[in-house]
From TrEMBL, chain A:
One Pfam family, short name: Sulf_transp
Name this polypeptide is given: YeeE/YedE family protein
Subcellular location per the Swiss-Prot or TrEMBL entry: Cell inner membrane
Transmembrane segments annotated in the record for this chain: 12-30, 50-72, 84-101, 121-142
Family: Belongs to the TsuA/YedE (TC 9.B.102) family.
TrEMBL record, chain B:
Short name of any one Pfam family annotated for the protein: DUF6691
Lineage: Bacteria, Pseudomonadati, Pseudomonadota, Alphaproteobacteria, Sphingomonadales
Alphabetized UniProt keyword annotations: Membrane, Transmembrane, Transmembrane helix
InterPro entries found in the cross-reference section: DUF6691
UniProt source species: Novosphingobium decolorationis
Protein name as it appears in the record: YeeE/YedE family protein
Membrane spanning stretches: 40-59, 80-98, 110-133
Amino acid sequence: MQSFPDAQPLHGLAGGVLIGLAGAVMLLGPGRIAGISGMTARVAGLSGGAPWPLAALFLAGLPAGALAVAALTGGIPAQFPPSLLLLAIAGLVTGVGTRLGSGCTSGHGVCGLSRLSPRSIVATLTFIATGMVTVALVNALGGGI
Amino acid sequence: MRNLMALLSGLLFGAGLALSGMMDPARVRGFLDIAGDWDPTLAFVMGGAVLVMALAWALQRRMHRPLACEDFALPGTRLIDARLIGGAALFGVGWGLGGLCPGPAIASLVFHPVSAGVFVAAMLAGMLAFRLVDTRRS
């Protein structure tokens, strides 16, 4: 992939298959959508939905699964925005947006898109579009707050 | 059994996020940066995940009930309204600003407690604010 020197298509594909398996286990086992924003609101007591222990164990699995990969591969590269103010604003907007729009990248983007849900197709196209516009604007303004 | 399967699902999800590079906010923003140095990795993540999930949906349609519960609890609404589009639009703005969506943020709590912690705390505050406004309105 000469034209995209930083791209990791094989890692991406392998990770994507694991994420798909995660969604499959949640769908075929407990019979639910593996929607992370919904499960988070549930665990925080801010919405109904899945039984509390089920949602809590699902969320607890996220860092645990990542820790297992970090142990096997020697670490997970990550470059966070240095500004905590920017992260706080991003988090706030994400919290409101995922509740208003009933989902995020996991629920709409993975589970809904694969179900060909018209709602999820519209939601996914919308958040990718506004995400792209936001990054373009932030870059044009010099890279952050 | 259903709790064990939820834990297994979370573990697989977290491992997938870590392996795919989606826990690196810079890489996520690279995917959204189509006007700049575009990084297509996220498209491969979505592709792999959607492919496997499509098979799971095909299986689900043939099942009368899930393996570990009495009934499927799946969203039934088909409404495409201002809430859906406005909410997704706002979420995209947050995603572009931080390079984080809820899954990678929660998975990152053990690696970058301060940065991911600020994001997750603010996200919970946003969810709480939405609930307060939404409850008052209805």
